[in-house]
């Protein structure tokens, strides 16, 4: 089930860059000091944190925004739940203490577990759930003014079937919805503590690999008040390699969407294994005049060579087709399409002979195993005049970066299946040809004959760093779970659906669910492509992600932001990249506005929201007031309100 396919008509290869468009700072920002301040300190256990745990804490959003009202909450350093109400007319916030959570008394065993940051989620404008980070979930009823009513407290009791060595663990609250008005379904995540886990090595300081549990728990309505903590009802469970980066609920399909660095699967379902080549499959690359095999034994019965050889990387597939070196270039016809490949050589022999033992393959609209990007796929022909044969090299850019192809052509295409092997001598020829080709692009000449010029857009002229540009974004997978835990019918029998990863650049603003459709911004070359989830007409309607807009060169400009904490977008209008900020530097938000597919320039704005006396930025959210977008930026010591920035 292909999920994310870019629309070429919405891409803008002529885009030049972003122009700075300043805003009057005092007219679009307002700072409000916090009486009840936050803290980033929450390391409590004696066990070391894994990389995934550290990363999830850095990216944790301490601000919860209600999508149905102008209300938000956070939990301060003393476990007080602080409510924020934004005035419709003045956009000024009003702060009030909703409730002071009890601080649990930690036993010696509990102290070995790292607690989570407190987290909150609105069910609606008057119903709020808060997790204290120690392992207790609280349900509140909110009023317009006055005190807040605590309805009940809950604990997560883990049954033995989930193979956990702990009966209860700290957890984080991601989302809470009431799908039918009869109950609340909340999504929690926690670190998995396996039974019989091996003791960490004394010689290694590296933490052991970790897994994370995703819990779907149900609270019946109306909530039964009780002074004692109640046990949460677990309705479904999944497990993955990381904490989800983005979670939302699709009411039209009655399913939760999770975006994370891995798929989230039931514990009895193994993830799709990734291909790892064996040592015998890894062939060294010979240098010029180098013979890795020694003198070959003479043979009179040589096997028939395959029609082509091929290899692949995470984002490309390279085919090598031998051609007689005297083949004129104008007789080679190559055409790329998103799903097919055409290769025709006029006058090529159709049968092998003593003079020409090679039969050139003829491919006419042959279906490929997966999609490619025809606009960036190229071909070259190295004649190798001193030899009898040259090499026609096809460089196919994968449409789904990170997907490993088991073969070049689709099953049933009627072509011989060729294993992914490449003769070392052919690989040497291909490498030399590509080195000459890329060198020509770097020095300004055009060795391709395709009119590509220097090969680098003006935006990146003299500033391109492939190591940095390729690392921007995060490789993520999309997982769907029915609200009751069942696999939606359109996922297939195994429940995997499409496991193809995407390079994620941005997620929607927290609090925007009631205003904008769910969407993701994925890396496509140097661009950021906006994929918007289309509403389903029925529960059986498979998700459709439509390419609705493009932030040209977004991946390029984000690559230079090394202190970025949050990256969120407002549909097609703008992308906000927030720096975390420290006492002395940083704390900016970079706003990149959307532009049409024919415009060569877009606007960029920079505003100061954190750092200095405000402290580090710990949370962001979006709400609508006066018919316009208002962005809340929660820092350690201040709340910053951005308005009229779009």
Q: What overall geometry do the principal axes of the alpha carbons give?
A: globular
Radius of gyration: 28 Å
Tell me the span between the first and last alpha carbons.
36 Å
Low-confidence stretches: 447-460
If you average the pLDDT, what whole number results? 83
Helical fraction? under 10%
Secondary-structure content class: mainly beta
The share of residues in extended strands comes to: 35-45%
Let me know the number of strands: 36
Helix count, DSSP H or I runs of 4 or more residues:
5
* Biggest sheet record: 12 strands, mixed
In short:
The protein is 7% helix and 35% strand.
Task: List strands and helices in order, with pairings.
Layout: E1 17-20, H1 25-28, E2 29-33, H2 51-58, E3 64-65, E4 71-75, E5 80-86, E6 93-100, E7 119-124, E8 127-131, E9 136-141, E10 149-155, E11 172-177, E12 183-191, E13 212-220, E14 230-231, E15 233-240, E16 246-250, E17 255-260, E18 309-312, E19 316-324, E20 332-336, E21 340-345, E22 363-367, E23 378-382, E24 389-397, H3 424-443, H4 466-471, E25 474-482, E26 502-508, E27 519-524, E28 527-533, E29 545-551, H5 554-558, E30 564-570, E31 574-579, E32 588-593, E33 601-608, E34 617-625, E35 628-635, E36 638-643
Parallel strand pairs: 1-33, 10-14, 26-30
Antiparallel strand pairs: 2-36, 3-4, 4-5, 5-6, 7-8, 8-9, 9-10, 11-12, 12-13, 13-15, 16-17, 17-25, 18-19, 19-24, 20-21, 21-22, 23-24, 25-26, 26-27, 27-28, 28-29, 30-31, 31-32, 32-33, 34-35, 35-36
């Amino acid at each position: 089930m292909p999920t994310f396919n870019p629309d070429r008509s919405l891409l803008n290869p002529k885009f030049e860059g972003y122009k700075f468009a300043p805003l009057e700072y005092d007219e679009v920002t307002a700072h409000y000091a916090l009486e009840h301040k936050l803290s980033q300190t929450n390391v409590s256990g004696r066990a070391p944190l894994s990389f995934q745990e550290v990363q999830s804490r850095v990216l944790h959003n301490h601000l919860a925004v209600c999508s149905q009202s102008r209300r938000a909450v956070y939990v301060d350093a003393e476990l007080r739940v602080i409510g924020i109400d934004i005035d419709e007319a003045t956009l000024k916030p009003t702060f009030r203490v909703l409730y002071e959570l009890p601080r649990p008394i930690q036993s010696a065993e509990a102290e070995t577990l790292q607690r989570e940051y407190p987290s909150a989620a609105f069910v609606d404008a008057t119903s709020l759930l808060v997790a204290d980070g120690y392992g207790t979930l609280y349900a509140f009823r909110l009023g317009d003014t006055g005190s807040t009513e605590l309805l009940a407290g809950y604990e997560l009791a883990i049954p033995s079937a989930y193979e956990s060595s702990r009966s209860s663990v700290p957890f984080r609250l991601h989302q809470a919805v009431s799908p039918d008005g009869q109950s609340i379904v909340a999504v929690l995540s926690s670190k998995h503590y396996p039974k019989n886990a091996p003791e960490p090595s004394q010689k290694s300081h590296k933490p052991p690999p970790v897994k994370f549990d995703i819990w779907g728990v149900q609270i019946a309505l109306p909530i039964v008040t009780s002074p004692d903590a109640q046990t949460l009802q677990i309705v479904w469970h999944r497990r993955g390699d990381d904490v989800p980066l983005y979670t939302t609920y699709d009411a039209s399909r009655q399913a939760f969407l999770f975006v994370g660095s891995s798929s989230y699967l039931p514990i009895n379902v193994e993830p799709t294994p990734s291909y790892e080549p064996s040592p015998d499959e890894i062939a060294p690359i010979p240098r010029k005049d180098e013979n890795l095999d020694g003198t070959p034994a003479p043979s009179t019965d040589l096997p028939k060579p395959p029609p082509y050889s091929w290899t692949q990387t995470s984002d490309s597939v390279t085919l090598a087709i031998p051609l007689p070196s005297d083949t004129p270039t104008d007789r080679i016809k190559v055409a790329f399409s998103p799903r097919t490949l055409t290769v025709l050589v006029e006058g090529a022999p159709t049968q092998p002979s003593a003079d020409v033992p090679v039969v050139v393959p003829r491919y006419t609209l042959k279906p490929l195993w997966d999609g490619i990007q025809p606009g960036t796929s190229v071909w070259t022909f190295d004649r190798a005049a001193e030899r009898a044969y040259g090499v026609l090299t096809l460089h196919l850019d994968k449409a789904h970066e990170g997907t490993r192809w088991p073969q070049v052509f689709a099953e049933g295409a009627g072509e011989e299946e060729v294993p992914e092997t490449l003769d070392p001598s052919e690989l040497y020829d291909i490498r030399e040809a590509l080195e000459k080709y890329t060198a020509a692009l770097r020095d300004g000449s055009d060795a391709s004959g395709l009119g590509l010029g220097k090969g680098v857009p003006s935006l990146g002229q003299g500033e391109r760093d492939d190591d940095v540009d390729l690392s921007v974004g995060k490789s993520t997978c999309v997982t769907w779970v029915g609200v009751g835990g069942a696999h939606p019918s359109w996922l297939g029998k195994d429940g995997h659906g499409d496991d193809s990863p995407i390079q994620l650049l941005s997620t929607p603003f927290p609090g925007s669910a009631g205003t904008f459709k769910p969407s993701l911004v994925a890396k496509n070359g140097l661009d950021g492509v906006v994929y918007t989830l289309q509403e389903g007409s029925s529960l059986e309607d498979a998700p459709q992600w439509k390419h609705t807009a493009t932030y040209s060169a977004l991946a390029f400009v984000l690559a230079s932001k090394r202190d970025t904490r949050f990256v969120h977008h407002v549909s097609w209008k703008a992308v906000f990249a927030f720096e975390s900020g420290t006492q002395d530097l940083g704390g900016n938000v970079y706003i990149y506005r959307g532009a049409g597919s024919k415009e060569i320039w877009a606007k960029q704005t920079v505003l100061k929201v954190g750092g200095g006396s405000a402290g580090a930025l710990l949370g962001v959210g979006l709400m609508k007031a006066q018919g316009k977008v208002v962005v809340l930026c929660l820092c350690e010591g201040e709340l910053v309100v951005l308005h009229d920035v779009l």
